[in-house]
Amino acid sequence: MNFQIREAITANVKGDNPQDFQETIQDAIARGDEHLLPGLGVFLEKWWQTSTEEEHAKFTETLSKAFQN
C-alpha cells in the first residue's frame, strides 16, 4: 500500500474554512497525541510554501522565543 500522508491530509481538509482549520489545530494540540503531529507538519509545510519572507521571519522569531522558555 502506497500511503502518501501529504496527499491524504490535503484531501481531508480540502475546502475547509478558516474556522475549520482553527478547530482542527486546537483539537490536535489539546489531544496531545503524537500521531497527529504529521498533520500539523503538513499544515506548516503548506503555510511556509505560501508565505512571504516577512511572515517566515516573524514565525521563526516567535518560534525561537517559544522554545527559550
TrEMBL record:
This protein's source sits in the domain of life called: Bacteria
Official protein name in the record: Small, acid-soluble spore protein I
| Biological process, per Gene Ontology | asexual sporulation; sporulation resulting in formation of a cellular spore
* Description of what induces expression: Expressed only in the forespore compartment of sporulating cells.
What keywords appear on the UniProt entry? Sporulation
Q: Which Pfam families match?
A: SSPI
Kindly list the places in or outside the cell where this protein is found, as annotated in its UniProt entry: Spore core
Q: Which organism is it from?
A: Ureibacillus thermosphaericus
Q: Which family does this protein fall into? A: Belongs to the SspI family.
